[in-house]
Specification:
Layout lengths: L7 H20 L6 E10 L5 E10 L4 E7 L7 E7 L4 E7 L3 E7 L7 E8 L5 E5 L7
Length: about 140
């Protein structure tokens, strides 16, 4: 018995259908929905705006911290959260312009008194955000 040969046209149709299925599968994934809780400006010691800090909550209840700078700093910076009791907690190190960190589902932005950006090598304070002056 002779098997019918596949023409290049059928191969092309198969490849196009496969590519369309892969594209559809990629874009049909569910996206995590985020809700903005609060946003604060980051100010330098000279009172110039350096960017902003925002707190988000995801659908699953996880709280996120997003630090977004308007320009890349000259050195890596520590991001330190200071609570109302005066205790500081380093949450990350930013080397570019954006830092996103998960703070857990029990975190509350109302407990924060300041967010400080401190130079890793110099120890210099580059900027600070205070929750008492919300921007959003």
């Amino acid at each position: 018995m002779r098997r019918p040969s596949r023409s290049p046209l059928w191969n092309l149709v198969f490849v196009v259908i496969l590519i369309m299925a892969l594209i559809w599968a990629r874009y049909s994934r569910t996206e995590k929905k985020r809700t903005l809780l609060v946003r604060f400006p980051i100010l330098s010691p000279a009172r110039e705006s350096l960017g902003e800090v925002s707190f988000w909550v995801e659908d699953r209840g996880d709280r996120l911290l997003k630090v977004e700078l308007s320009r890349k700093p000259g050195e890596d910076l520590y991001v330190i959260l200071y609570y109302r009791g005066g205790v500081g907690r380093e949450v990350g190190r930013i080397s570019g312009t954006v830092l996103i960190r998960s703070l857990g589902p029990t975190f509350s932005p109302e407990k924060i008194s300041a967010i400080v950006l401190k130079g890793v090598s110099s120890g210099r304070i580059y900027g600070e955000a205070r929750p008492s002056s919300p921007k959003g």
